[in-house]
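call fold(seq) -> tokens
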Amino acid sequence: MLVFTFVSMGAGMVLSKYIFGIDVFSNPALLYDYSNPLAVQALKLIQACYAIGGFLVPALLFPRSFQQNGVEYTLLRVSARSIMWVLSVGLFVVSVPVINHLVVWNEGLSLPPSLAHLESQFKTAELAAKQLTEAFLKTDSLSGLLLNLVLIAVLPAFCEELLFRGALMRFLLQCFYQKHLAIWFSAILFSLFHAQFYGFVPRMILGVLLGYMVWYSGSIWPGIVIHFINNALATLASYFDWENSSYRILQPDYSFPSAVVILCAILTVCLVYIMYKKNKQLNWYNGE
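ret:
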């Protein structure tokens, strides 16, 4: 996978040189000049190449190493039943306050004094990621919004789900013979690949929920669609500046009231259980 990542990013850098005149190879610092619109466009092109070459291509080619069709292996050709779509959307909705609470908690974590240097590196990386995200999202045009939706919502949802909830999760199941272990381990890897310590836990839990959606529905599509909705909402929130809207329902620190979080946590577990029962009733999976 690392080979595909380096090749795809390299391809993006080459294209950036010829399309935008941004020569990353001779001057890598150009990519960090977020005040330069061409540099930001180059970054978006590299990101698109990375998503396709680093996630989508390995997801489809990996199953071939053990004589499996990539499209079949990643459950792309399987349609989810209507009830599973309803339950998946419901699961996402009720889990939002829980995940948001975990975001606030994770961002407030502090390491012991002995790990101060490591904590400083984490914070530096987090700041760099935040600045990059803000540069990506900054746009005042409808065309810019549509491009951001493709780069931040469509491509990551499709490519990442095919790799982590498609090829990887199914491969881990073959290794462990235990679906819960496969779902949680793939979610951990999913969060690790984003390399953000202060967002690790909520992203891992989101990966777990996406894993159960895919597993109990028997299709990769609920995971793709919910992943898309999650990323698209963040993109739209930035574009329409929902943070400063008078209709904002969150508290000043972006958290929900504790009672809402607890209730939604209970509902989240209940919906996962209902998906499990529906899966058993429809005989999509014969096992625990």
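The chain has a mean pLDDT of 90.
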